[in-house]
Amino acid sequence: MPGRHVSRVRALYKRVLQLHRVLPPDLKSLGDQYVKDEFRRHKTVGSDEAQRFLQEWEVYATVLSQQANENRQNSTGKACFGTFLPEEKLNDFRDEQIGQLQELMQEATKPNRQFSISESTKPKF
């Protein structure tokens, strides 16, 4: 992404990862990996695409923050995260994005996780 966005990108990246701390562990792992991959994938995009990318992630961070606050105030103890994705928005996605969304949905809805993402880079014995 262009240089003038670097501090904004870094702050947003950190904010999203911080917000993920309220997610259940398996969703946090999945979300963290997705965020890291997406931000890495968009490092070299043009200014217009960088602007759209940042706007979408800022909306995501705002929604997740609101949901985290609502879940803290919810007395049932059942946390609820996510939002409806309207068909009009899906129509704007490129084929690659639709594929990523399908993979993400499949991974998020697996009954038994097939992966383990570790924060540590040390090998576990």
TrEMBL record:
GO terms for biological process: mitochondrial respiratory chain complex II assembly. Keywords: Chaperone, Mitochondrion, Transit peptide. It holds the Pfam family Complex1_LYR_2. One of its GO terms (cellular component) is mitochondrial matrix. Coiled coil: none annotated. It is found in: Mitochondrion matrix. InterPro entries: SDHAF3/Sdh7 (IPR008381). CDD domains: Complex1_LYR_SDHAF3_LYRM10. Plays an essential role in the assembly of succinate dehydrogenase (SDH), an enzyme complex (also referred to as respiratory complex II) that is a component of both the tricarboxylic acid (TCA) cycle and the mitochondrial electron transport chain, and which couples the oxidation of succinate to fumarate with the reduction of ubiquinone (coenzyme Q) to ubiquinol. Promotes maturation of the iron-sulfur protein subunit of the SDH catalytic dimer, protecting it from the deleterious effects of oxidants. May act together with SDHAF1. Belongs to the complex I LYR family. SDHAF3 subfamily. Interacts with the iron-sulfur protein subunit within the SDH catalytic dimer. This is Succinate dehydrogenase assembly factor 3. It comes from Gorilla gorilla gorilla (Western lowland gorilla).
